[in-house]
Design goal:
six-stranded parallel sheet, 348 residues
Length: 348
C-alpha cells in the first residue's frame, strides 16, 4: 500500500492557475471582517482553507483549524504536521482546559450549554485569535450563533450543495450570524467533463449544478473513458469483488478510493478483499479506533466520511433497493472525489 498524498500548491502556483487571483484573495483577506468562501466540489476550498490557516498562524499564535470529518482531520494532520481538530474534539479540548466534565459531542448539547462554555473559556483565558472551518455546511447553526463569543476572527469554507446532515447550516444562516465577506470560487479543478456530467445526474433538481459548464470551465479530458458503469454486466466477473480486483490491477500507480454505503458493508467487503483476493488495503469508518487507521491506497470508506478527500480513481458502490434510502447528495459528494476515473457499480 502507498500512503495517501496531499497535493498542496504554494501561493505562486495558485496565482498562476485560472481564477488564481480569487483564491489568493481568500488566502490573504485581512481579518477586519469574517470570511465566507463557497462553491462546488473540486474548486479548491480545502486547499485554500489550509493556506489561509497557515497564513493566520504566521500572524497569530492562537489559531485553530476545524473540519467536520475525523478522516479528513487525520489526513491533514499526517500531511501538515499541524493539529487539525474536528468540532467535537475541539469542544472536548475546551472542556479539558476549563477542567469541566468532558463532553465530546457538541451536537447533543443545547445552545445555552454551548454559549455558557464559550463564555467561561473567554472569562478564564480570553478570546481565541482565529479559527478556520472547512465544510461549514455540516456544522449546526447553533454553533455559528455563538462562535463570535469565542473567536476574534472566523473564516469558513464550504458548499450549500454538500449539506448532507439534518442539522447542517446554509450560507444564508452563516451570513446572518457572522456577517462575513463572501468570496465564490467558480471553477472545478478536480473533475474531467465526463466525470462531472455523471456527478450531475445524482442531483438533477439542483439548478446550480446543472448550470455548471462541462468543457471550457473544467480540466482537459483525459484519453479514453473516464466513467464506467456496471449494472448486470459485472456478472462476467462472478461477483463485484472480482470486478474491483480487476480495476485495482489496472490502476496500480493511482490512488484509489472505494466508497460503500454502510459500515457493515465496508467490513464485509474488506474481509472478502483480504481473505479471497489477498489484496492489501486500508479502511475507515467511525467504529475503527484512530490508532488502527491507515491512510493508504486502496482506501475503503463510507460516502459521508470522504468529504474533503480526493482520489485519482473512485469506485462507487450503489445498492439497488426497492426504496433507496441513501440520499442523492451523498452519492454526488462521493462521485465528485474522482480526478481521473470513476467506476459506478450497482449491486444487490
Amino acid at each position: 500500500m502507498e500512503a495517501l498524498s496531499l497535493d498542496l500548491p504554494n501561493e505562486e502556483c495558485i496565482e498562476s492557475s485560472p481564477k488564481g487571483y480569487t483564491m489568493l484573495a481568500a488566502i490573504r483577506k485581512d481579518t477586519s471582517q469574517n470570511l465566507l468562501v463557497t462553491w462546488c466540489p473540486g474548486s479548491g476550498k480545502t486547499i485554500i482553507a489550509i493556506r489561509r490557516f497557515q497564513r493566520l498562524l504566521d500572524q497569530w499564535k492562537n489559531v485553530y483549524m476545524l473540519v467536520y470529518n475525523k478522516l479528513l482531520s487525520m489526513h491533514l494532520e499526517s500531511s501538515l504536521q499541524e493539529e487539525i481538530r474536528t468540532l467535537d474534539s475541539f469542544y472536548g479540548h475546551i472542556n479539558y482546559k476549563l477542567e469541566q466534565e468532558l463532553n465530546w459531542y457538541i451536537s447533543e448539547l443545547s445552545e445555552d450549554e454551548i454559549k455558557k462554555t464559550f463564555e467561561a473559556y473567554v472569562e478564564k483565558f480570553g478570546k481565541i485569535d482565529a479559527v478556520v472551518i472547512d465544510e461549514w455546511q455540516d456544522f449546526p447553526e447553533k454553533i455559528y450563533r455563538n462562535l463570535q463569543i469565542l473567536f476574534n476572527h472566523i473564516s469558513v469554507f464550504g458548499d450549500d450543495l454538500q449539506r448532507i446532515n439534518e442539522n447542517s447550516s446554509s450560507s444564508e444562516q452563516i451570513e446572518e450570524n457572522l456577517d462575513p465577506f463572501r468570496i465564490e470560487f467558480n471553477r472545478n479543478f478536480r473533475n474531467t467533463p465526463e466525470i462531472w456530467e455523471t456527478c450531475k445526474q445524482f442531483v438533477p433538481m439542483s439548478e446550480r449544478v446543472q448550470s455548471r459548464a462541462t468543457s471550457d470551465d473544467l480540466i482537459s479530458a483525459l484519453e479514453g473513458e473516464q466513467v464506467l458503469k456496471f449494472n448486470d454486466d459485472w456478472a462476467e466477473y462472478k461477483e463485484p469483488l472480482w470486478l474491483v480486483m480487476n480495476i485495482l490491477d489496472r490502476h496500480k500507480d493511482d490512488e484509489i478510493g472505494i466508497f460503500i454505503n454502510t459500515i457493515k458493508n465496508i467490513d464485509d467487503f474488506s474481509f472478502q478483499l483480504w481473505k479471497v483476493g489477498e489484496v492489501e488495503h486500508a479502511k475507515y469508518h467511525s467504529k475503527i479506533p484512530d490508532e488502527e487507521v491507515q491512510l493508504a491506497s486502496p482506501f475503503i470508506t463510507t460516502y459521508k466520511s470522504l468529504k474533503g478527500m480526493e482520489f485519482d480513481v473512485a469506485i462507487l458502490f450503489i445498492p439497488i433497493l426497492k426504496k433507496n434510502t441513501f440520499p442523492k447528495k451523498e452519492k454526488f459528494v462521493a462521485a465528485t472525489r474522482a480526478k481521473k476515473k470513476l467506476y459506478v457499480i450497482y449491486t444487490n
